[in-house]
Amino acid sequence: MDSKRPRVLTLFPSAVGGGAERMVLEQIRRSDRFPYAHTAIALRAADLHADFSTFPSYECVHAGTRLNPLALRRIHRAIAARGIDILHTHLQEADFYGFWLKKLNPHLIWISSRQNTDAYRQRLFWRTLNRGISHSTDRVVAASAAVRDFVGRYEGISAEKVSVVHNAINLDRFAEPRPTAAARAAFGLPPDAFVVGIVGRLSPQKGHPYLFEAAARLAPEIPELRLLVVGKGHLARKLRRLAGTLGIADRVSFVGFHEDMATAYAAMDVFCMPSLFEGLPLALLEALICGKVAVAARAPGITDVLVDGENGLLVDVADPVSLAAALLRVRRGQSDPDMPRRARAAALAEYDVERYLARLEAIYLDMFATAAPPPAASAAIR
C-alpha cells in the first residue's frame, strides 16, 4: 500500500471489565501517539462504557446479543466513511461481524485476536464454524502459546499466520500500594483474616466451586479463612447457594465488579485461580504485579505464566483437595518466601501494556505495508 497513515478499527463485543476490553481501553487512551489512526466500536455497552465514552474515537452500536443486520450495516458504513484499512476484532462475537465485514470489504486487512482456549470451541459444530471464520482472516493474534497451539489444533490455522502477543496490564494502575488494613476494611473483612481472593466472571470456566470446596475443607484448620470473590456473572445465585450448602456462607464476600483492583489485591493474602482453562489471564498478572502469592490450576494459559515453585504454586485442574493442600502450605509458611518477589519482577519485565501495544503496532504496520492496494470502492448493504 502507499505511505499514508493506516486507519485501524477495533471491534469488540461489549465494554465489560474483562482482559480483552481493558487492553482496548488502554489502546484508545494512547491513540493520539500512534503512527496509525485508531477508532473502536463496541457492540454493546457494559461496566466500562462510561470510561470508553470519554474518548471521541469510541462508539457503541448497541447491537444486542445476536448478529444484528442494522449494526452490521452501521459498522460497514463507518468502515467506508473512515477509510478503514485494518479491522481488528476481539472475541468470538466480534469475529462473526468480522467475517461479514471482510466479505463486504475484501480489501480490509482483518486481524482477529484470540484470548482463550474455550472448551466449547473443541466441539465439532464450533470447530467447523471457526475454521471457516479463521481462514478468512489475514492474521490471528494469540494471547499466549497455549492459545496459538489451540487454534492450530482445532481451527487448522498455520503457525505462520499466528502472532503471539501476550496480554498485558497498565502498570500505572498498580503503582501506588494500598494499605492492607484499609483495603480489608473497604470490603468488610477482619484485619487478621487469612484472605484468599478470586477475580473473574462468575462462570463455569473460572472454577469457583473448586475453591469453595477447598475452603470448606480448610475451615477447621484455618478458622480465620475468608474468601473475597471479585466479579459478577450468571452463576452468582448458584455460587451463593453452594457457599450456604458447604457451610461457608459467612466466610465468602461477593463484591461484584470492582474498578479499583489495586485495593482488591491489597486485601488478599493469596490470589487463587482454579480455572478450567485460560488464554493468558490478566487477573493473574495483576496479582503477581501486586506481590501476591498465586495458587492456580495447571491449566492452559496459566502455565504460560506460572512455573510451579518458581513464581507460584500449581495444582491439578478441578481438584479441590490439592487446592486446599496448597493454600494450607501458604498459610503455614511452607512456600518459598521469595517467590512473590521473583514473580513480580518477571511480570513487570514481560507484561507491561506498552510492550503489548508496541507489538501490535509492528503487526499493523507490517501488514499494511505489504497489503495489496484497495479497490476504488467497497460493497454496500442495501
Detailed description of the structure:
- The structure is a single chain.
- With 382 residues, this protein is of the alpha/beta class.
- It is built from 14 helices and 13 strands.
- The strands form two sheets. A seven-stranded parallel beta sheet has the order 3-2-1-4-5-6-7, with helices on both faces.
- The chain is elongated and about 70 Å long.
- The two termini are 29 Å apart.
For this entry, give a set of tags.
382 residues, alpha/beta, Rossmann fold, 2 domains, seven-stranded parallel beta sheet, six-stranded parallel beta sheet, 14 helices, 39% helix, 17% strand
Outline the secondary-structure elements.
Blueprint: E1 7-14, H1 19-29, E2 37-44, H2 49-53, E3 58-60, H3 69-82, E4 86-90, H4 91-104, E5 109-114, H5 124-134, E6 139-142, H6 145-155, E7 162-164, H7 180-186, E8 194-199, H8 208-218, E9 225-230, H9 236-245, E10 252-256, H10 261-266, E11 270-273, H11 282-289, E12 293-297, E13 313-315, H12 320-331, H13 339-350, H14 353-370
Parallel strand pairs: 1-2, 1-4, 2-3, 4-5, 5-6, 6-7, 8-9, 8-11, 9-10, 11-12, 12-13
Helix pairs in contact: 8-12
